[in-house]
Automatic annotation (TrEMBL):
InterPro entries xrefs: NagB/RpiA_transferase-like (IPR037171), Ribose-5P_isomerase (IPR050262), Ribose5P_isomerase_typA_subgr (IPR020672), Ribose5P_isomerase_type_A (IPR004788)
Protein name: ribose-5-phosphate isomerase
Enzyme class: isomerase
Key words, A-Z: Isomerase
GO biological process per UniProt: pentose-phosphate shunt, non-oxidative branch
GO molecular function annotation: ribose-5-phosphate isomerase activity
Family classification: Belongs to the ribose 5-phosphate isomerase family.
Enzyme Commission code: 5.3.1.6
Reactions performed catalytically: aldehydo-D-ribose 5-phosphate = D-ribulose 5-phosphate
NCBIfam families documented for this protein: PRK00702.1 (NF001924), rpiA (TIGR00021)
Organism: Platanthera zijinensis
Length: 276
């Protein structure tokens, strides 16, 4: 077994499973292998009887698969999942995770989700897949929110990867809302923004699960201003529903590295080597 790609706990669970359920052990891990490794470690925190926030995206899907697997095997019982998107809802159903919502289960024991960026204080950018609003509601209602990423998601400054900081807006006069957002950041060198469009159709705005639009903000040098002030200013614009900065929400982040090392970092900056 390759060093670092199976923790003691995962190894124990691997021993109980046929090879098909094991994490793939490739010589050079792909980014998807790393996402899977981080996800499996997070699922080690799940206990029977928990209400779980089920994240969205290519990393979270590995957690869904793993949870479904453990439910089918009887290792996890009485799990209730709260999906953060319609996509996750469909996938969770397909893998056999019983589902509910925040109206019925307003307190979530543990949420597990990916992120687009994680800064050294565990502030996050999420929502490049468009699911930021439901994610923020469910993860904000969680006693514990564990973020799962491969090492490429770690940045010094939010926005610093050059990718978007998403803002969900109501469709009504979204160009008007966009011009207000443009005005807010007009003095910042390298700032630009654009309305997110449907893949393959640049004329049609992308629509979220909540039937809203998304305006993507780009900060060439990352966000250098106070993040809480930036958050407040964006939320003050009428027409904005929510943004993808998740500030002070994550309890910890599990980071899988190319060298096989897996580390959990908590919000105090304390690192725990899980493996490798
Ligand atoms: O809207 C999408 C979500 O916020 C995802 O959690 C985020 O984009 C990370 O996705 P992935 O795991 O696919 O990189």
């Amino acid at each position: 077994m390759q060093r670092g790609f199976c923790s003691t706990v995962i190894r124990r669970r691997c021993d109980q499973m046929p090879p098909a359920a094991d994490p793939p052990l490739t010589t050079t891990p792909t980014q998807d292998d790393l996402k899977r490794v981080a996800a499996y470690h997070a699922v080690d925190l799940v206990q029977s009887g928990m209400v779980l926030g089920l994240g969205t995206g290519s990393t979270a899907v590995h957690a869904l698969d793993r949870i479904g697997d453990l439910i089918r095997r009887g290792t996890l019982r009485d799990i209730v999942g709260i999906p953060t998107s319609t996509k996750t809802e469909a996938h969770a159903r397909a893998v056999g995770i019983p589902l509910s919502d925040l109206d019925v289960h307003p307190v979530v024991d543990l949420s597990i989700d990916g992120a687009d960026e994680v800064d050294p204080h565990l502030n996050l950018i999420k929502g490049r897949g468009g699911s930021l609003l439901r994610e923020k509601m469910i993860e904000g209602a969680s006693k514990r929110f564990v973020v799962i990423v491969d090492e490429t998601k770690m940045v010094n400054l939010l926005g610093g990867s050059g990718m978007a900081v998403p803002v969900e807006v109501i469709p009504f006069c979204s160009k008007f809302t966009m011009s207000n957002l443009r005005r807010l950041f007009s003095g910042i060198p390298g700032f630009h923004l654009r309305l997110r469009t449907t893949p393959g159709d640049e004329m049609t705005p992308a629509v979220t699960d909540n039937l809203n639009h998304v305006i993507d903000l780009f900060f060439e040098d990352g966000i250098t201003s106070d993040l809480d002030a930036v958050s407040d200013a964006i939320l003050k614009i009428v027409g904005v529903v929510e943004h993808g900065m998740f500030l002070g929400m994550a309890t910890s982040v599990i980071v899988a590295g190319k060298d096989g090392g897996v580390t959990e970092i908590n919000r105090m900056g304390v690192r725990r080597i899980i493996s490798g």
